[in-house]
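::Encoded backbone::
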Amino acid sequence: MLIFAWGGMSVKNAKLILNSMNNWLPIVSGLRNNKFSYLEAYDRFLTQSLQGKMPGCGPAYYTKLIFLLTKHLHQRGFIMDQWLGRSINLLADREIVLFYQCRVRRPLKQRYVHKNNTCRAYDEFCNAVRNLTVVSGEIDPDSRIREENVEMRLFSVGRGKGNWRNYVIENDVLS
């Protein structure tokens, strides 16, 4: 629940997801006990979500669980929220991560990650973050730290204060 609160989940959605804990808590346990890879966990969360068994919780939230609870740190999944998803799409110049709101000709401050992002899309998204790490200039010998630093740069401070986030908002538009 702390992860959901840290991620800024609304009280309404928190109540909904709390009432369905029996559906997703086994996945969290599997992550913490090294039973699932990040992709297996994503696939299980996605299945629960598409079956309506995780109300109020979509990919932007359950990928926070994956990122923060995965013990397979050499192969961890990343947080696929609107800021990282929009960043990866902008850098890739194509839609890897699907959103509910389509790109428009004027900047949008909010775009929400669509619940229909497949496991394949999530894997492509995570690989894109890893690939950015290679060209990022990060020099820490631990690849996990390099990846996390790249992810934090793409997240860009939060609440619209970072230069990169403002760049994403202004440039995540149709040409």
